[in-house]
Amino acid sequence: MSSSQGAKLADLQRDMKEPTDKTTLTSDFGVPQTNNDDWLKVYSEDKQGPFLMEDNFGREKIHRFDHERIPERVVHARGAGAFGRFTLHTSIEDLTYAPILTDTSRETPVFVRFSTVLGSRGSADTVRDVRGFAVKMYTQEGNWDIVGNDIPVFFIQDAIKFPDMVHAAKPEPHNEVPQAQSAHNNFWDFQFLHPEATHMFMWAMSDRGIPRSFRMMQGFGVNTFTLVNSKKERSFVKFHFTPELGVHSLVWDEALKLAGQDPDFHRKDLEEAIENGAFPKWKFGVQVIPEAKEHDFDFDILDATKVWPEDLVPVKYIGELELNRMPDEYFPQTEQVAFCTAHVPPGIGFSDDPLLQGRNFSYFDTQLSRLGVNWQELPINRPVCPVMNFNRDGAMRHAIHKGTTNYWPNRFSKVPPAPEDSKTSYVDYEEKVAGIKKRARSAKFREHVAQAQLFFNSLSPQERSHLTSALAFELDHCDDEVVYERMAQRLAEIDLGLAQSVAEMVGATVPDKAGRPNHGRRAPNLSQMDLLPAKPTIATRRVAILIADGFDSVSYTAVRGAIGALQGTPMVIAPRRSAIKPAGGGASVKPDHHLEGFRSTMVDAIFIPGGEQSIKALSSNGRALHWVREAFGHLKAIGATGEAVSFVRTAVSLPAVEVSSSEEAVESYGVVTLGNPNTDSLSKVVDIVKNGKKFT
Ligand code: HDE
Description:
Elements: H1 6-13, H2 56-66, E1 79-88, E2 107-116, E3 131-139, E4 142-149, H3 162-169, H4 185-193, H5 198-205, E5 219-220, E6 225-228, E7 234-243, H6 252-261, H7 265-275, E8 281-290, E9 316-325, H8 330-335, E10 348-350, H9 354-370, H10 450-458, H11 461-476, H12 481-494, H13 496-506, E11 542-546, H14 553-565, E12 569-574, E13 593-594, E14 605-608, H15 612-619, H16 622-633, E15 637-641, H17 644-651, E16 666-668, E17 671-674, H18 679-690
Parallel strand pairs: 11-12, 11-14, 12-13, 14-15, 15-17
Antiparallel strand pairs: 1-2, 1-9, 2-3, 3-4, 5-7, 6-7, 6-10, 7-8, 8-9, 16-17
The chain binds CIS-heme D hydroxychlorin gamma-spirolactone 17R, 18S.
Region (Disordered): 1-30
Family: Belongs to the catalase family.
Enzyme class: oxidoreductase
């Protein structure tokens, strides 16, 4: 870790405590204590005597425990975080004077918190939902919080709708059901009655709503911010983070199963990668529109329900975000981290985006009930640069200010305002504003379907089919006919074929004509197939190697080596976790898990080496068969050699192939089989995983 990134770590260390071998127990007020197991009682050897309330140490322990919980976030309650760094490779000084976007020698410490939106803190990671992507950059000119999502648009245009939107999406009020799901009447009732949500629900129902990993999703600032340069020229800007590993998703059945089998799937995945040194990275980019071109588009660039299509406004990549250290303790760091969209450093500003303006108010306010008025003093939230002003007191104040004055102006001229002409001072942009005060939205804000069509048209056939199934799943969970009937009409405004397929599945009246014609236009990078990694990789991908006693160690060793060399994560799975013996003697292998304890959903690909006895055991093991069939059903790459070939092909009902002499790998629907182990052909399995290919 470099010294500048270490600035935040050094700052946090001021509050860190770690016991040594010599540390002994004390009370909270520092008095050494001799017993941490027995409450003070009236003692007698033959009879349990009364429990004494005078046990101050026991009472302190219980009181502290009673108050361990704070209110969970009203949205984005479940999250996982990590530390890292932001670096800039290309200055944009023509657009902004913000040093973090102009000084390429800088490295800025960051903390990122990923989250789901709807579920409670204890819900599952893999539910269908939008993911939060909140980045706190501890810049030398103050904290910069980009409080983004993995989807570039939002359900509402105006902050005043946020409580309605969240109420409708969260569990229903009468019975608090369902948990962490949008598949219910109220959510879809609101989606129909609130047409500006149309574009966003298409994204949420697409594969973007079920990411494979936090490391494989994009981050978007969503709202329109502004950049100001030294000549006081202003541009509009959207912020993007694009993952180096490409954008990948689960399939729905996998997501559903994982929610029960491993509810912490995403947070464990983040930790596993960072602990293994495979640091997740994102390219950081900006889309920029000069102020003079604000009105050149057929959508309003301040409307958070619209993307700026990348063929019209390309993303310019200028920096990199890397995550490389896990938090030391969840509560004081990941739980108490508090973001605020209003936190921007000098050179970056806001626009009249009516969602952003409301957010700037809301985030500070929500921290007051979650953490109290001194939330910005908490170690995870405090900046690495000096903080000085006359804000004072309040519950849980930590800072101690010396001196006799707590106001400005004061007779000592202490803490005067910073100079306006400095690149490190925040100066409000002087904007001429005119208009009439009115509760209304301007004309372009009233069009809601064109970009929903643009998104749908841009998807690959597989993604469209997943989206259709997702809508059919969700509306199947709505038992109020009004809700699914209306939604079928809304879908017909986007695409008639989509509406017809979903309506038929959910028992709604099948529309026979489009609510409006599909304009047929597409744009780049809306489909995640456009966002596969520039350099295909299996780094950090889990490849299960299924073996039983008598496995073929040549093939096992070759594939294990190939996975390891490409920084993939091989995981050996067997009918039991005690040592498994190869055919013909040699070193046994201790599996990572047994077939029952671990599931195919938790890996990205499977490889099965041959070995007569091993395959006999696996073919007669129902759980092994289920592993292979389930992985095939989830469109994962499966490799098999020797005797495993016919086991796999029979299990997934593929026609038999002649294996005895085959040196050539045969691939069908992601299943790669070859007779004799041979490293070139084995790499084909690896290639499939590498290309992030899933098969329909
Ligand atoms: Fe948030 N949002 N939001 N939001 N949001 C919160 O702040 C809010 C919106 C987002 O990991 C809350 O500290 C309003 C858009 C993330 O701690 C709250 C509006 C986007 C996180 C709040 C929006 C987001 C939050 C709850 C409409 C994507 C988690 C706890 C005007 C760009 C941050 C908290 C974390 C959290 C309000 C809309 C993303 C209540 C009023 C659009 C990633 O203040």
